[in-house]
Each structure stands twice: as C-alpha cells, then as structure tokens.
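User: Could you walk me through two proteins back to back? I'd like the raw sequence and the structure tokens for each, with a short line separating them so I can tell where one ends and the next begins.

Assistant: Of course. Protein one, sequence then structure:
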Amino acid sequence: MPSNIAKRRRSKAKGVQFTVMVVVLPHKECDNPESAVVETGVSIKPVNVDIEEDGLRISLTIVDTPGFGDSVDNDLAFQEIVTYLERQYDDILAEQSRNQA
C-alpha cells in the first residue's frame, strides 16, 4: 500500500484539529465618565467541540476573548492573548517532538 494512502487513512481515523480565536473590538458608549475608566481585563475562554461528519472527526476549539477592547489602553490585554498563543504553540511543538521520537 502506498504511504500517502496509509497516511490519509490514519489522518481520517485520527481526525483533524482546528482552532478559531475570536477577538472583537467592541464599540461602547458610556454616559458616566467614572465607569468608563473601569478596566476589567481580558479573559480567554476556550470551548472544545467534537464533530463527526462523513466519518471524519473534527476537534474544533473556539477561543473567545471577552473584555478585549474595553480599555483605553489594550496593551495588557493584547499581551495576554499573545502569551496564550505562544503557550499553545509551545504545547503543540512539544507534542509533535514527542511523537517523532
């Protein structure tokens, strides 16, 4: 059996992983200036969903970032998102390194 056919069969059995991050800059109107300076920060909320369509398993992760854009200065919120993405990348790289060894 050719290796590319074997790889396709393994990937179909194993499934596909897909991640979407939702970062929205909201438009807010505020009538009270005292409440306008309250900065709650960003929270990162991943939600995992497993879907099977025509025998193909899909592991979908949707990462929501409520609170992003609520502050006047979003540098800290942006850094939290970058840190999360770097941590995810490091985890995937470590997993792939273990699988190749």
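----
Protein two, same layout:
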Amino acid sequence: MTNNTHDTDEEGLTSIPEKKSIIQDKYPLSELTGKIIGCAMEVHRILGNGFQEVIYQRAIAK
C-alpha cells in the first residue's frame, strides 16, 4: 500500500506539488508557456500537416 501525496488536476493528470513549486521559482512563466504550447499543438492537431506557418499563426490568433 502506497501513500499517494500527488494531486490530480482537472484533466486527470498527476502533479507533484514540490516539483511544481521548484519549477515555478526557477521558471516563473512555465505555466503560461505550457498553455501556449498546448494551444499550438491543438491547432496543429485540428489542421494537420502541410500548411504554411502563417496559416497556423492565424488559427492561433483566433
């Protein structure tokens, strides 16, 4: 039997509070960066491959 001290976020992902704190101290914009990358990946997932960069830029801007 293990003692689970990890939290689960709204997406069901496990986070380690101590590690998150260390990352936030060293990289204060890491949460924002993760959201931006997530948006870019979502746009790419929906549009797929083969478009010029400007198409992806416009899709992210909306």
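The chain has three helices and two strands.

Let me know if you want the two compared in more detail.
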